[in-house]
């Protein structure tokens, strides 16, 4: 007698299992050498069958995994993704309900109640393995817990444009919050370019970054230099504060200055001098300035709520490398400050080597009198954390 045919019945995988497998595959393949959003873009480009809803949820699972930093690192990846989802989400979630219905029932609990329920304790030093480098005034617990939330999207209404922007947001039914005179907080993921098509009316700029501008205080017709201008976010803020200034912008990357030119054109800024300069070398061919903005290249550690993969992959030795670069740049830039002129030093870092130590260098080695310095906390208001110092020659 022949063998009985064996009949296997495969239960098709649910959408949620597919999502978990795809997210786990991404985490397995990703090595931190590229920003995660670039990696995800190529990943999804190669898989055009995935719809936008699938992409969004898979992406979210991956980000939620990295939001835990190195905490509970030994946990199996799929379990840790669910832990991330449970701690980060605040409303009922079908995927979590499928795998962990008892967790989903508690989704609206506070993080501390969720941790109690799981009998886990939050370890700030595991989430953020660089605690010993933190600048003064940053509270490790609150700072690391803020990683569970993606910071909000902030825009800055350009002078005289706020009312028109708010009307468009209301027409589109977008929830918003206004902060101070010019800032509008928006939910993440909204397509600003569709709702606010006139690029001349606003700039996308984090709340703390906007607040650094309060230190610029340019006077009429002064000469200002934004020496690490990138695509010009701070320059546009400076120009909006005092449109009569004589503005010089520079960056080591010519490609980013092309973006600046486009952005300036959209913003209606025409009179400026733009040049490619490598500030690790002495600068020639520029006359001294009344004001300099040194928005230094840095670790970006105050913005990792938007790029939490850095919690996992950032290498500690880079802190010293950035600090050395910042000092080199400061050394070459400060001779170009007029006596009595002001230099505004900015980083989006939470590391003292890039902040307080740089200020000590500006004071002791560059001869500036420091008028103000400190962290601009963003972690307690869903924004980035930055550092700003003002030095006078
Ligand atoms: C933090 S970003 C500036 C952001 C910009 N100010 C803004 O508000 O959007 C720092 C910039 O410094 C530039 N940079 C890095 N190394 C430099 C160097 N050696 N000389 C001049 N600029 C440099 C980078 O290309 C980068 O655009």
Short description:
The chain has 393 residues and is of the alpha/beta class.
Q: Give the C-alpha Rg.
A: 24 Å
Order of helices and strands, N to C? Answer: HHHHHHHHHEHEEHEHEHEHEEHHEHEE
Largest sheet entry: 7 strands, mixed
Q: Please state the average pLDDT score.
A: 95
Would you identify the regions where 5 or more consecutive residues have pLDDT less than 50? Answer: none
Structural class: alpha/beta
Task: Write a structural description.
By secondary structure, the chain is of the alpha/beta class. It has 17 helices and eleven strands. Helix 13 links the parallel strand 5 (223-226) and strand 6. It is globular. Residues 228-231, 233-234, 251-253, 256, 277-280, 295, 297 line the site of S-adenosylmethionine.
Write the layout of secondary structure elements.
Layout: H1 15-29, H2 36-45, H3 52-66, H4 77-88, H5 94-99, H6 101-104, H7 111-118, H8 124-127, H9 140-145, E1 153-157, H10 162-171, E2 177-179, E3 183-186, H11 192-195, E4 202-204, H12 207-212, E5 223-226, H13 233-241, E6 246-251, H14 254-267, E7 272-276, E8 289-295, H15 309-313, H16 317-333, E9 337-347, H17 356-364, E10 369-376, E11 386-392
Helix pairs in contact: 1-3, 3-4, 16-17
């Amino acid at each position: 007698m022949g063998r009985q045919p064996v009949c296997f019945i495969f239960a098709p995988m649910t959408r949620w299992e597919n999502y978990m497998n795809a997210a786990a595959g991404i985490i397995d393949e990703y090595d931190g050498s590229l920003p995660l959003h670039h990696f995800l873009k190529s990943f999804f480009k190669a898989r055009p069958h995935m719809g936008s809803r699938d992409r969004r949820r898979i992406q979210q699972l991956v980000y939620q995994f990295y939001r835990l930093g190195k905490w509970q690192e030994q946990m199996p990846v799929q379990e840790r993704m669910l832990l991330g989802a449970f701690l980060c989400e605040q409303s009922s979630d079908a995927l979590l309900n499928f795998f962990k219905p008892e967790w989903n029932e508690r989704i609206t609990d506070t993080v501390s109640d969720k941790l109690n329920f799981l009998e886990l304790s939050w370890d700030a030093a595991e989430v953020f393995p660089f605690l010993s480098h933190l600048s003064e005034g940053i509270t490790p617990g609150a700072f690391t817990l803020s990683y569970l939330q993606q910071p909000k999207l902030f825009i800055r209404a350009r002078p005289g444009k706020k009312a028109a922007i708010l009307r468009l947001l209301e027409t589109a039914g977008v929830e918003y919050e206004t902060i101070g005179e010019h800032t509008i907080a928006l939910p993440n993921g909204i397509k600003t370019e569709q709702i606010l098509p006139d690029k001349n009316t606003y700039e996308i700029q984090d709340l703390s970054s906007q607040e650094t501008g309060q230190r610029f205080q340019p006077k009429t017709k002064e000469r200002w230099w934004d020496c690490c201008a990138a695509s010009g976010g701070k320059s546009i803020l400076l120009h909006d504060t005092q449109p009569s200034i004589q503005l010089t912008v520079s960056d080591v990357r010519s490609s980013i200055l092309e973006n600046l030119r486009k952005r300036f054109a959209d913003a209606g800024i025409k009179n400026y001098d733009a040049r490619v300069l490598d500030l690790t070398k002495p600068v020639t061919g520029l006359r001294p300035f009344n004001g300099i903005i040194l928005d230094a290249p840095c670790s970006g550690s105050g913005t990792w709520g938007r790029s939490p993969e850095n919690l996992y992959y950032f290498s500690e030795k880079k802190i010293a490398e950035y600090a050395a670069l910042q000092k080199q740049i400061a050394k070459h830039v400060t001779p170009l400050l007029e006596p009595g002129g002001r230099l505004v030093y900015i980083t989006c870092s939470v590391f003292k080597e890039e902040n307080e130590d740089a200020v000590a260098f500006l004071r002791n080695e560059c001869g500036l009198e420091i008028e103000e310095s400190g962290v601009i906390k963003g972690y307690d208001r869903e924004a980035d954390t930055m550092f700003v110092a003002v030095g006078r020659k």
